[in-house]
Amino acid sequence: MNRVVYVSQFSEKLKNNFEKEISIILQKSRKSNLELDITGLLVVNDNHFMQILEGGTKELEDLLTKISHDERHTHCSIIQRESITDRLYAKWSMAFKELEKNDLKHLDRIYSWDDIMSSAEKGIKIPEDKIQEVVRSFIIK
Question: How much is the pTM?
Fold first, then answer.
């Protein structure tokens, strides 16, 4: 089993119809992920996505290929791939979190949202321990 974390920017299509498009993404991904035994979390803030996906290698690779061709976002960058034994989001075929001011303050103590996005866009490697800490900070009970 694996965990993959990627970040991307919203496309104009998504920005112009955010509520509707997010609703469609969540509805379709929850159904599909349940069938494929994929779990995870979609995080949004300031025109960016961070998505954490957990599942089998083939299922994740197929899904990432599909995601990379989705016109609702651009500049898709994988910032972490790791082999895992336990899921962090086992109860969620696709959880959703829209970051608020308090979330950002908490993240700033680990690795700021802006630094994550900027590093990903520039191809700068983010320290693994920081990504893991950020991912764990989003765990939904």
Answer: 0.89
CATH of domain 2-137: 3.30.70.100
What is the C-alpha to C-alpha distance for residues 6 and 52, in angstroms, rounded to an integer?
7
Question: Cα-atom radius of gyration of the chain, to the nearest Å?
Answer: 14
Q: What are the sequence ranges of the domains in the chain?
A: 2-137
First to last CA, the chain: 21
For CA atoms 92, 129, 111, 107, give the dihedral sign. positive
**Which CA distances in Å does 14 have to 24, 55, 59, 61?**
11, 26, 25, 24
Count CA atoms within 13 Å of residue 89 on its CB side: 30
User: Average pLDDT for consecutive 10-residue bins of the chain (141 residues)?
Assistant: 94 87 94 95 91 96 94 91 93 92 86 89 88 83 50
